[in-house]
Design brief:
It comes from Streptomyces hygroscopicus. The chain contains two helices and no strands. The protein is mostly helical. It is globular and about 35 Å long.
Length: 66
């Protein structure tokens, strides 16, 4: 199990809300995986180039907009 606390840019929130309002539930998972991959695993392009991230087997997720 991995606990991730990560700030993501505002454009990710905009993409997530747009997907939600369009009824594209699965697209939200893709957006979140891409954003977390870039920010958390690849450290904004400083490491792990080419790493594929899948957001799956999630037991708990909590999001906030600050």
């Amino acid at each position: 199990m991995r606990w991730i606390t990560q700030d993501l840019p505002g454009e990710v929130a905009r993409e997530l809300f747009a997907a939600r309002y369009a009824g594209a539930g699965e697209q939200q998972t893709v957006i979140l995986a891409r954003a977390l991959g870039h920010a958390y695993f690849r450290e904004w392009g400083r490491r792990a180039h080419g790493l594929h991230v899948a957001f799956s087997d999630v037991e708990f997720a909590d999001f906030s907009i600050g």
